[in-house]
Amino acid sequence: MASGNQFDRIFEEYVAEIESALPAVTEWFAQLKASRKYTAQGFKIDDVWPSLTGSHPVMIRIFREHFLRLAILIERLDREEEQEDEKEPSEDDWGTDDDDFEDGDEEEDYDEYGERPSEPHQVLIERLRAERPDLYAHFRQFMFIPIGLEDYLMVEREIENG
User: Fold this and answer.
1) Tell me: the pLDDT tens digits for 13-34?
2) Nearest alpha carbon to residue 139 among 50, 17, 20, 13
3) Domain residue ranges of the chain, discontinuous segments joined by +
4) Measured between alpha carbons, how far is 78 from 2 in angstroms, rounded to an integer?
5) How crowded is residue 34: how many other Cβ atoms within 10 Å of its Cβ?
6) Could you give the CA distance from residue 54 to residue 142 in angstroms, rounded to a whole number?
7) Is residue 111 classed as helix, strand or coil in its secondary structure?
8) Exposed e or buried b per residue across 75-92, where buried means at least 16 C-beta atoms within 10 angstroms of its C-beta
9) What is the average pLDDT across 71-78?
């Protein structure tokens, strides 16, 4: 199972990267709005860039990287839970309850309903909205979900080697 609080660590790194990127990203968006490039052609800036500052390639890269890291973590935890469920009961466990053996660290990875995140967006979007509404505002109408097995495998290799 997850040790430390891997979900918290990934979330904290995600927040730190967003905070680091924001000055350049907000400057980019301010220049984009000031240029009137789109309004002169009859478009609203919100129609062209619905996520506003979240549309910047750096913000997409940050989201994508952490989305894939979380997807890999969730997949690993799912596999571990499946393997644990498939283990044959031992006579040594007779008369014990599985809940008696839960590791205290595991509790940290679970939400108030007793469940750990099952989807990356629960950490990257929903938790950001709850804990950092100032940063969540930059992901208004953010419509990006990275897909592709190659991406997952590449990030998993980077994580294992890093």
Assistant:
1) 999 999 999 999 999 999 888 8
2) 50
3) 6-83+103-161
4) 11
5) 8
6) 7
7) coil
8) eebeeeeeeeeeeeeeee
9) 89
- What's the length of the chain? 162
Q: Which of 81, 53, 80, 70 is nearest to 123 (CA)?
A: 70
What span, in angstroms and rounded, lies between the C-alpha atoms of 116 and 137? Answer: 25
Burial 141-154 (b: 16+ CB within 10 A, else e): ebeeebeeeebbee
Name the DSSP class of 141.
T
Structure-token match 């590449």, residue found: 154
- Least Cα distance to 56 among 76, 77, 33, 74 occurs for 33
75-105 residue pLDDT tens:
889 888 888 766 666 677 676 665 545 554 4
Instruction: Answer whether 47's CB lies under 8 Å from 105's CB.
Output: no
**Is the CB of residue 8 less than 8 Å from the CB of residue 73?**
no
List, in sequence order, the alpha helices (H) in the chain: 6-35, 45-48, 57-86, 120-121, 128-131, 133-136, 149-161
